[in-house]
Amino acid sequence: MNTTLEQDAERVLDLIQEKRRDDATRRRMVIGVAGPPASGKSALAEAVVQKLNIGVTGPTPEAVLVPMDGFHLDNRILESRGLLARKGAPETFDSAGFCSAVQQLSQPDHERYFPRFDRQMDLAIANAIAIPPEVPIVVVEGNYLLLKSPPWSSLSQVFAASIFVCPSFEALQDRLHRRWLDHGLDSDAAMKRATGNDLPNARTVIDESREADLLLDQNYTEFGVRYAY
């Protein structure tokens, strides 16, 4: 079924409200938005958080977005381990640190801070995302949130609701190719980057993730290269 980003964001909001009604005693909801690279999960997660924060006038937002990308290992570490060309694969993240930090989000006893990945500088900025204890909803997005293997599997009890975004494999390949073209590579080099790293990572996400509460295919193209993340 063809949908738009707006419609998919509304479906996620409906799911969040449903989960809220089912557990009115929960102090904070942690929502997981997962999917392969170029699936559109980042655009969806951003849209959901923006919608949740519409009408908020005070200093505390209704929702905060936490991207997994802030837990990329530094390029110097990856280079020393021969993993720089595989950046974005599960082993190139501080996966244990990320999973531990996300688990703590469900206990809003004090303000917590998360890193943000700067794509222009190609590095993570520490403590760039603040989450006050009063924030009732945290939306976490990333490729590997629903993997069945540890340490990712530890998140299965954290998410009050989970969303998996996955267009067709052909759409992913096209979007990933366009991503690297937009980064200045020629067509052959762009396809090599897509098939050598991104698509194997996508296959890992598709084949090894557990079932989500909501599956979205996001096969529309209205936002073009926005799907690169």
Describe the protein in words:
The protein has 229 residues and is an alpha/beta fold. The protein has a single domain, classed as P-loop containing nucleotide triphosphate hydrolases (Rossmann fold, 3-Layer(aba) Sandwich). It has helices at 5-22, 41-52, 75-80, 95-105, 169-182, 187-208; strands at residues 29-34, 63-67, 112-118, 123-131, 137-142, 161-165, 214-216. The protein has a 5-stranded parallel β-sheet with strand order 2-5-1-6-7, covered by helices on one side. Strands 3-4 form a two-stranded antiparallel ribbon. Helix 5 (169-182) crosses helix 6. The two termini are 22 Å apart.
Q: How much helical structure, as a percent, in the residues?
A: 25-40%
Q: What would you report as the Rg, rounded to the nearest angstrom?
A: 17 Å
Shape: globular
Average residue pLDDT: 91
User: Helix-strand pattern, N to C?
Assistant: HEHEHHEEEEHHE
Q: What would CATH call the architecture? A: 3-Layer(aba) Sandwich
In percent terms, what proportion of residues is strand?
15-25%
Adjacency order of strands in the biggest sheet: 2-5-1-6-7
**CATH top level label:** Alpha Beta
Number of strands: 7
Largest sheet: 5 strands, parallel
N-to-C span: 22 Å
* Structural domain count: 1
Given helix and strand content, the structural type is alpha/beta
CATH fold type: Rossmann fold
CATH level-four homologous superfamily name: P-loop containing nucleotide triphosphate hydrolases
SSE inventory with pairings:
Elements: H1 5-22, E1 29-34, H2 41-52, E2 63-67, H3 75-80, H4 95-105, E3 112-118, E4 123-131, E5 137-142, E6 161-165, H5 169-182, H6 187-208, E7 214-216
Parallel strand pairs: 1-5, 1-6, 2-5, 6-7
Antiparallel strand pairs: 3-4
Helix pairs in contact: 1-2, 5-6
